[in-house]
C-alpha cells in the first residue's frame, strides 16, 4: 500500500509544477488544480496509514480501494507528464536577437500553438477529478492506526562489525577449522596448485584411496541465511596464500555455464584453478562438469561450493553447516544492537529478547535483520514485536525458513513507505547481482521515488535512503575489493531471501514485471509499469502484442542479448532505459533513432553495453534527461546535441568517451557528476573547457582525462576555486609520461575541506603541496600524487591524514637520492596512517625499523643510490623473537620498489627484514625489483630473501615479485634470458 501513497505523492508534485507562475493557465483552471491537489493530499494521508499495516490484516475492500487509487494515480501522472512536456516545448525562450516583425509573427503562432495543450490540461484535470471522485467515496470508511517511522541518515557504524575479517566473525572458528580439515586432511605448509571450476565432479573424488594431489571438492549445505557464503569466503581468505591462484565467484540460480567458465578463465591461468561457488537449488547439470578436462588433474586443487539443496551437493563431500549456538546467537544480536562487547541495558526486557532469539533459530540473517529492526526501539516496542501476528504461529514446512521469512517481512513493514518503494525497485535486478550505487540512486530519482529536502540534493537524499536500507539489513553493502581504488561502499547486493520477498510483493502490486527465462516469453500482466529483462535473449513475441506496454515507466535489461527489439513502439512514457551488460547488434542499435521520441526519459544507461558505438542525434530531444551513464561502454564521442540536455545532472563516460567540443559545458551547467575525456580537443578548446568547469557550481564528482600542459593547468586551477561542493577530483592523462610539471598556481589552489578523493597523477609536484594536511583536508580518504622529493614533514603530514584509506605515491626519477623518515610512529599522538588500507609507492623503497632501546618504530621511504643503507645489517637480525609493536593497523596491501644494486652495495646487507612484521593486517605484498646494474646473484638473492620475509610474517601474506630493467651479470658470462629481462612471478 505504500506504493499507492508514493504514486499519489508524485501526482501532487506534478500539480504543484503546473501551478508555477510561468505556466499561463486558462481562467479558473488554477483553482481546479488546487482543489484536486488538496483532495489528493487527503487521500495520501489515509493511504500512508493504510500502508503501515500488513496486507493480510487489511479488509479486502481497503486493498481494492487502494489498488484503484494507485492505478488512477499512475494514469494521472502520465497525463500530467505529457502536458508538461507539451508546455516545455512551446514555452521555449524566444530569440531576443530576431527582428520585431519576426517576433510578433512568432508570438501569434505561439498563441495558437499553446491553446491546444492548455485546453488539453483543462480536460485532463476534469477527467482526473471525476476518476478520483469514483474511488474517494470509499476513503472515509476506513481508519487504521499507524506508528511514525524513525529516520536514519548515515550508515550505522555497528554494521561494520558484521563485515569484519574472518578471524573476527562471530561463531566462525569451529566451522572454518572443520571445513579446512575436510579440504586438506594432510595440510602442510607448502605451496599448492589451485584449480577453479564449476563445483561438480564424480562422487569418488573424495575417496580415501585417491592421491592427496587429486582435486578436492566439498559442498557447504544449509538453509538460506545461515552464512554458507560467509564461511566459504573465510576459508578462501585463509587458504588463498597457500595457492598459486584462486578466485571467489558467485552465480545465481539459473547460471549461464559458458559465462561462468569465461569468468573463471578471466581470473586464472588455464592450468591452475581453485573455486568457491554459490550454487542454486536448480543447478543440476552435472555432465558438463564431470566430463570437463579441468576436473581430472593432479594439481592438488580444491573447490568449495555452497547450496541449499542437498541433492545438488550429494556428488561430493558435504559439510552440514549448523545454526549458531545460543551463546553465539546472543553475541551476534548484541553486537548489532550495541556494538562490539556491547551489553543489554539495566532495564532491558530479558524475556522479550529470549523469545526473539528463539524465533531467530540461530540463523545469522534472521538475527541481524531482527536486531536492525530493534535498534533504537523502546522497551514496549520489543514486546510489540513478540505480540505481532505470526510470532507464535505454527509452521507446516521448514520452521527455520518460515521464521526467517516472517522476520524479513516484519522488517519490511517496519520501514517508512519511501524505503519500501525503493527496496521493491531492486527486484529489477537478477539474483547475486552487484548493483552500482550511483546507477541505482539515479534510477530512483528518475522514477520520482526521492523527495528533495531543503539543504540537500536529490542524490544526497537518495544516498540517505541507500544507507537506511543498509542499516536495516535489507541490502548488503558491497565493500571495495582488495585491488579496488574505491574507498567507500560502491554498491549493494540483495540476499536471495530478501529478493524472493520483494519479487513476490512486486508481483502482487504489479510494481515490476520480470522476464528472465531462457526462451524470451513475455510478461503476463495486462498492464506493465516496469519491465525487467534478466539474463535472456530479448526478442519480440506474439504475446508482446497482447500486453499493454503503453504505461511502461522503466525498462531495465541486465546481461541480455538483444536480438531484434528493445523499444516497443508504445513506450512513450518511459522514464528509465537501462541496458547494463547487454549485447546489442549494430542493426538493432541503428534502429533506435526514434530514441528521441521518449520525451519523458530521465535515465539512459548503457553501462558495460556492447555493440553501441555512437548515440543518435535525436537524443538532443530528451529535455528531461538527467542521467547519461556510458561507463565501460563503446561510445567514443558524444554528439554535439548533448548541449541541448540542459537538465543533465549525471554524465559518466567511458575512459574513451570524448566531449563533443570545448563549449558544451556552457549550456549543461547543472552537472553534479562529470566523467569525460577531452584529449580529442584542440588546445584552445581544452582551455575553454577548463574555464567552463568553473560554472559547474553543483558538481560533486569531476573526472577529466586529457593533456595537462601549463595553460590548461592554469585554467583548471582558477576554476577549482568556484567548485565549493566538490568531493571527488580525478585527473588522468592519455599518454604514459613522467607528468607535466605543476604550475605555480597549484601552490595557491583552495580545495574544499570536504574533499574525499584527490587524484592528481598527471601533475608532477616538486614536493608535497602544503594543502595536503589534516587541517586543510580532514576527511580525505583517497590520494594519488606524483612527487619528486619527500621530506620528514611531508611524510608526517601524509601519515596524519585521519581518514586516508588509499595512498598512491609515484616518483618520476627513482634513481635520484631521497630519504624521508618518521620516528616512533607507534607512539604518534594522532596515529600514523591509522586507517590506511592500501599503500602503493612506485619508485620508492620502504623500510620499518624497530629501535629496541625505546621500542619505537621508524618508517622510511627511500630512493636512489645515494640513500642511507637500505635493509638490515645482518641476516640474523630479522629472526629476532621480540614481537614488534603493531603500526598502520589496517594496512592490507603494500606495493614498493627494491633497488637490488643499492641493497648489496656494501656487501653486508639483506632485505630479509624490512620490518613488515610490524604490519598486523598485511595480506598482499607487491614488489618491483629494479635490476639495473645488479648481478644475477644479487637479484636472485633479493628474490629469495623477500619471499622468506613474507613467509615469516604471521599472516603469511601473498607476495608478487616483478623484475624490470636490464641487469649486468658480473659473476657469469651470460644471462639465460638475454639482455632485457622482465619477468613476473607469483
Automatic annotation (TrEMBL):
GO biological process terms held by the UniProt record: defense response to bacterium; innate immune response-activating signaling pathway; plant-type hypersensitive response
Biased composition (Acidic residues): 969-979
One Pfam entry name: LRR_14
Domain Disease resistance protein winged helix: residue ranges: 428-502
Keyword Ribosomal protein: no
Residue span of region Disordered: 966-986
Family: Belongs to the disease resistance NB-LRR family.
PANTHER family: DISEASE RESISTANCE PROTEIN RP, OS12G0273300 PROTEIN
The protein's name in its UniProt record: NB-ARC domain-containing protein
Native source species: Setaria italica (Foxtail millet)
Amino acid at each position: 500500500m505504500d506504493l499507492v501513497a508514493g504514486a499519489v505523492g508524485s501526482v501532487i508534485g506534478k500539480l504543484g509544477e503546473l501551478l508555477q507562475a510561468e505556466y499561463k493557465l486558462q481562467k479558473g483552471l488554477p483553482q481546479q488544480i488546487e482543489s484536486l491537489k488538496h483532495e489528493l493530499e487527503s487521500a495520501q494521508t489515509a493511504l500512508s496509514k493504510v500502508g503501515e499495516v500488513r496486507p493480510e490484516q487489511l479488509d479486502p475492500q481497503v486493498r481494492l480501494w487502494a489498488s484503484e487509487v494507485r492505478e488512477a494515480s499512475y494514469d494521472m501522472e502520465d497525463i500530467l507528464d505529457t502536458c508538461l512536456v507539451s508546455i516545455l516545448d512551446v514555452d521555449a525562450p524566444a530569440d531576443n536577437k530576431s527582428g520585431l516583425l519576426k517576433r510578433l509573427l512568432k508570438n501569434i503562432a505561439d498563441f495558437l500553438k499553446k491553446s491546444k495543450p492548455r485546453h488539453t490540461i483543462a480536460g485532463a484535470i476534469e477527467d482526473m477529478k471525476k476518476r478520483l471522485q469514483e474511488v474517494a467515496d470509499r476513503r472515509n470508511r476506513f481508519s487504521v492506526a499507524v506508528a511514525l517511522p524513525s529516520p536514519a541518515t548515515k550508515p550505522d557504524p555497528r554494521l561494520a562489525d558484521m563485515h569484519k575479517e574472518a578471524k573476527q566473525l562471530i561463531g566462525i572458528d569451529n566451522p572454518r577449522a572443520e571445513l579446512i580439515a575436510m579440504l586438506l586432511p594432510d595440510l602442510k605448509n607448502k605451496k599448492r596448485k589451485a584449480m577453479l571450476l564449476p563445483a561438480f565432479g564424480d562422487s569418488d573424488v573424495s575417496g580415501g584411496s585417491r592421491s592427496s594431489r587429486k582435486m578436492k571438492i566439498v559442498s557447504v549445505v544449509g538453509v538460506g541465511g545461515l552464512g554458507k557464503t560467509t564461511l566459504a569466503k573465510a576459508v578462501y581468505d585463509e587458504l588463498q596464500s597457500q595457492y598459486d591462484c584462486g578466485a571467489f565467484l558467485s552465480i545465481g540460480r539459473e547460471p549461464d555455464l559458458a559465462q561462468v567458465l569465461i569468468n573463471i578463465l578471466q581470473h586464472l591461468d588455464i592450468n591452475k584453478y581453485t573455486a568457491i561457488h554459490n550454487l542454486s537449488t536448480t543447478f543440476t547439470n552435472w555432465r558438463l562438469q564431470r566430463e570437463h578436462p579441468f576436473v581430472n588433474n593432479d594439481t592438488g586443487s580444491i573447490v568449495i561450493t555452497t547450496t541449499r539443496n542437498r541433492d545438488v551437493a550429494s556428488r561430493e563431500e558435504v559439510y552440514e553447516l549448523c545454526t549458531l549456538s545460543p551463546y553465539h546467537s546472543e553475541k551476534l544480536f548484541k553486537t548489532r544492537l550495541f556494538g562490539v562487547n556491547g551489553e543489554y541495558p539495566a532495564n532491558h526486557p530479558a524475556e522479550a529478547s529470549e523469545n526473539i532469539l528463539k524465533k531467530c533459530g540461530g540463523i545469522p540473517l534472521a538475527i541481524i535483520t531482527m536486531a536492525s529492526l530493534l535498534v533504537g526501539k523502546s522497551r514496549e516496542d520489543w514486546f510489540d514485536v513478540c505480540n505481532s501476528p505470526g510470532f507464535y504461529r505454527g509452521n507446516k514446512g521448514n520452521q527455520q525458513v518460515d521464521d526467517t521469512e516472517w522476520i524479513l517481512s516484519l522488517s519490511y513493514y517496519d520501514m517508512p513507505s519511501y524505503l519500501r518503494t525503493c527496496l521493491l525497485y531492486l527486484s529489477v535486478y537478477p539474483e547475486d547481482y552487484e548493483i552500482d550505487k550511483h546507477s541505482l540512486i539515479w534510477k530512483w530519482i528518475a522514477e520520482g521515488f526521492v523527495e528533495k529536502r531543503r539543504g540537500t540534493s536529490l542524490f544526497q537524499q537518495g544516498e540517505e535512503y541507500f544507507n537506511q536500507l543498509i542499516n536495516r539489513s535489507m541490502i548488503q553493502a558491497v565493500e571495495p575489493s582488495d585491488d579496488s581504488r574505491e574507498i567507500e561502499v560502491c554498491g549493494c547486493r540483495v540476499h536471495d531471501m530478501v529478493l524472493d520477498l520483494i519479487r513476490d510483493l512486486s508481483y502482487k502490486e504489479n510494481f515490476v514485471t520480470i522476464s528472465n527465462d531462457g526462451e524470451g516469453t513475455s510478461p503476463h500482466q495486462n498492464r506493465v509499469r516496469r519491465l525487467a529483462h534478466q539474463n535472456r535473449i530479448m526478442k519480440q513475441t506474439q504475446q508482446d502484442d497482447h500486453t499493454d506496454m503503453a504505461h511502461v515507466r522503466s525498462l531495465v535489461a541486465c546481461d541480455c542479448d538483444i536480438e531484434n527489439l528493445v523499444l516497443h513502439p508504445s513506450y512513450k512514457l518511459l522514464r528509465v532505459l537501462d541496458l547494463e551488460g547487454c549485447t546489442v547488434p549494430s542493426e538493432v542499435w541503428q534502429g533506435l533513432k526514434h530514441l528521441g521520441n521518449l520525451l519523458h526519459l530521465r535515465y539512459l544507461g548503457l553501462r558495460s553495453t556492447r555493440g553501441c558505438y555512437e548515440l543518435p542525434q535525436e537524443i538532443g530531444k530528451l529535455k528531461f534527461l538527467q542521467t547519461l551513464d556510458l561507463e565501460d561502454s563503446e561510445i567514443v564521442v558524444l554528439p554535439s546535441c548533448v548541449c541541448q540536455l540542459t537538465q543533465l545532472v549525471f554524465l559518466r563516460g567511458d575512459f574513451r568517451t570524448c566531449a563533443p567540443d570545448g563549449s558544451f559545458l556552457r549550456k549543461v551547467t547543472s552537472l553534479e557528476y562529470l566523467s569525460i575525456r577531452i584529449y580529442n580537443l584542440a588546445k584552445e578548446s581544452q582551455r575553454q573547457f577548463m574555464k567552463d568547469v568553473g560554472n559547474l557550481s553543483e558538481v560533486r564528482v569531476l573526472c577529466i582525462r586529457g593533456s595537462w600542459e601549463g595553460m590548461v593547468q592554469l585554467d583548471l586551477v582558477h576554476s577549482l576555486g568556484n567548485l565549493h561542493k566538490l568531493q571527488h577530483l580525478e585527473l588522468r592523462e592519455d599518454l604514459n609520461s613522467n607528468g607535466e610539471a605543476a604550475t605555480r598556481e597549484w601552490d595557491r589552489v583552495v580545495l574544499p575541506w570536504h574533499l574525499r578523493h584527490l587524484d592528481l597523477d598527471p601533475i608532477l609536484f616538486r614536493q608535497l603541496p602544503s594543502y595536503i594536511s589534516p587541517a586543510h583536508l580532514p576527511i580525505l580518504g583517497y590520494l594519488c600524487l606524483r612527487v619528486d622529493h619527500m621530506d620528514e614533514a611531508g611524510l608526517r603530514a601524509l601519515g596524519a591524514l585521519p581518514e586516508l584509506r588509499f595512498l598512491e605515491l609515484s616518483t618520476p626519477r627513482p634513481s635520484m637520492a631521497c630519504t624521508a623518515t618518521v620516528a616512533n610512529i607507534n607512539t604518534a599522538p594522532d596515529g600514523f596512517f591509522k586507517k590506511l588500507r592500501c599503500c602503493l609507492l612506485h619508485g620508492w623503497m620502504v623500510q620499518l625499523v624497530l629501535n629496541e632501546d625505546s621500542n619505537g618504530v621508524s618508517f622510511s621511504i627511500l630512493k636512489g643510490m645515494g640513500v642511507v643503507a637500505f635493509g638490515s645489517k645482518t641476516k640474523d637480525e630479522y629472526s629476532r623473537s621480540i614481537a614488534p609493536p603493531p603500526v598502520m593497523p589496517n594496512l592490507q596491501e603494500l606495493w614498493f620498489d627494491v633497488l637490488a644494486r643499492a641493497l648489496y652495495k656494501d656487501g653486508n646487507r639483506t632485505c630479509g627484514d624490512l620490518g613488515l612484521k610490524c604490519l598486523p593486517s598485511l595480506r598482499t605484498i607487491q614488489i618491483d625489483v629494479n635490476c639495473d646494474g645488479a648481478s644475477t646473484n644479487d637479484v636472485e638473492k633479493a628474490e629469495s630473501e623477500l619471499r622468506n620475509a613474507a613467509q615469516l610474517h604471521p599472516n603469511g601474506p601473498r607476495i608478487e615479485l616483478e623484475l624490470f630493467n636490464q641487469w649486468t651479470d658480473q659473476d657469469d658470462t651470460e644471462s639465460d634470458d638475454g639482455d632485457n629481462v622482465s619477468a613476473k612471478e607469483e
